[in-house]
């Protein structure tokens, strides 16, 4: 039998309620990258979602106040990198404001369409942006998968309760 929620603890909708609830939702961790005139940009995302198989589409959210947003707002292509459990520090670097995300020890190369492609990830994709949908203080970016490599090694990195971790057996 499942427990009945205590209806006496109901909270009104707020940013804090949303954050507290989604801290309990485990999510895969990805890094989104793009090439900008002043150099590459990127950020850690837990909002990555598969949208359609035909055509192959995915989506992710990006805050309009994020340092990478001005480039993402204009970019034609992005890189999507699925991180492995061995890449907690890489995820933290791309999540940290003001970090030198593409400096050492981050290993990367210029990939197709000029997109920065991270090394040693379990999977990566290069996608063409097909839409940017306003959603509060974020934009939902819709992108068509063009090419990629899903054959890297490693188990997935997860984000849960405000921290990074791997799968447990």
CATH arch. level architecture: Roll
Structural class by SSE content: mainly beta
Helix content: 10-25%
What distance lies between the first and last C-alpha atoms, to the nearest angstrom? Answer: 25 Å
The CATH superfamily appears as Electron Transport, Fmn-binding Protein, Chain A
User: H/E element string?
Assistant: HEEEEEHEHEEEEEE
> What is the domain tally?
1
For this structure, the CATH topology is Pnp Oxidase, Chain A
Low-confidence spans: pLDDT under 50, at least 5 residues?
none
Chain-averaged pLDDT: 93
Please tell me what the overall shape is: globular
How would you characterize the largest beta sheet? 7 strands, antiparallel
**Spatial order of the strands in the main sheet?**
3-2-6-9-10-5-4
The level-1 CATH class = Mainly Beta
Describe the structure in your own words.
The chain is mainly β. 13% of the residues lie in helices and 43% in strands. It contains 3 helices and 12 strands; from the N terminus they run αβββββαβαββββββ. The radius of gyration is 17 Å and the shape is globular. The mean pLDDT is 93.
State the gist of this model:
With 169 residues, the chain is mostly beta strands.
Features:
169 residues, mainly beta, Pnp Oxidase, Chain A, seven-stranded antiparallel sheet, three-stranded antiparallel sheet, 3 helices, 13% helix, 43% strand, globular
Give me the secondary-structure topology.
Blueprint: H1 15-22, E1 27-28, E2 30-36, E3 39-45, E4 49-52, E5 57-63, H2 69-74, E6 77-82, H3 88-95, E7 108-110, E8 116-118, E9 123-135, E10 138-149, E11 157-160, E12 163-166
Antiparallel strand pairs: 1-11, 2-3, 2-6, 4-5, 5-10, 6-9, 7-8, 9-10, 11-12
